[in-house]
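Trying the structure run again after the queue cleared.
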Amino acid sequence: MTTLTYCKALPTPIDELNALGKTQLEMFLVAYTSIFRNAVCETVNFMLSGVDFNKSNWNTHLQTTYGISKRHANGVISAAKGAIDAAKECRILHIKTLEGQAKSCSVWLKKAENKLKKARKFYRVKNWINSKKGCAFPLSCSLKYRQSNWQNLRFQIHNKKRKLHRYQQKIAALKLATLRGAVPHNQAFVVGSKDESFGNQICQWDGNNLRFRVPACLESKFGKYAESKIGDFPRNINRLTATGAKTWHFYYKSGKWCAAVSFTPSEVERVSRSVDYGCIGIDLNPGSIGWAYIDSEGNLKAHGQIPLQTGLSNGQQQAQIVKACLELSALATKFQCPVVCEELDFSTKKEQLRERGKKYARMLSGWAYCQFFKLLNSILSNRGIELIAVNPAYSSIIGLVKYVKMYGLASDESAGLVIARRGMRLSEKIPGSLTALVEVNSKSHVWSLWNQLNKKIKCSGMVTNRHCYYAISNWDFLANLDIEEA
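Done. Tokens:
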């Protein structure tokens, strides 16, 4: 079930401050979090020891050892399980990333060695000067590096082999290494239940005042309860319910104690209609977001772009993404339709950054794609707007060939149009004027035709940039390409 988490720094009312400038709740949290961490560390070590874990027996052990109640111990066990699950997930992700980097490195090595092998074979022939094809990797010298391109490539191959060996060593070591869970300092976790008053028996909040049940080991110092006025969690759209389970997490950050409450959000009124009545498709690029709105028949009704700046700081980038998401939310509310986005995974591409250029690596690393769609999903769900993800395969080439010239769209707007139509489950057939240029097979998927066409366009050399698609009157040059290749 979906949960939301609201966070805020704990306020310090002047009437609650002591001589040290701290509230009673803050003083209690300082003392309790050290006990909580010791209990979590012992629980994590026991879970990783390989001995069968019995939650009931371990809960009793924590109560007698640390002088805490059963509800406090439940929070300790939940925090320990979370630390172990996070460590396992990070280990799997780390190994997967290293394996991807090793694979990318080995592929680059194979291509580079093959290139050098073919070049040597070419120059081994006596009459290579009279060759009509020429050498794919001709020998040349650089005044800047004071060596030939062959020497430079051999040096790169040597370094890549060393890099590949290090990747393989790291992968082997990680698979055999003992799993360790990280338990941070200055944090406390209290699990709630929907059957308890205020959603939590230990930590009860009535909308303004917070009342924390002090464990038996600290009652002599802080009394039975630690209380404070923390107020509400201010949100433009507040989905925090009065009933239901509330799980509390207290942590120390940037010199302030903070409180986070996790809960099952209340339902919001659905604003967007079914996707069959029309939708908005978006195409995200580093410099802009192209969007297109289509009606129930799949025809374009409105389009536009939301500009994005690159090279901003983290705070400015966050503010820019939120502003763009709010603009898309306003458009979806205006047209009362869902938003369709592309489902992309850049993990494979990011594993290949060492084998790509610095410019490409800088662009891909600075592109906050995952952050954008997390914020977009959160903002749209709070406003009752559905977000649909579709496969973006060949959306760019389809938009460039079919819709750029037809509607006079930008490339990202045309891709957004294709994504919107795909969200409505509408097919994108190749134009009739191009069917003779590809091998049509009734059993194959329509994307295979677009794949063939995309390869032909790249090999033609006639289309050098996306602006060329506006000037193409016919595609005869693709037919001539077949004749030249034959």
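The radius of gyration is 30 Å. Worth checking whether this holds up in the mutant runs.
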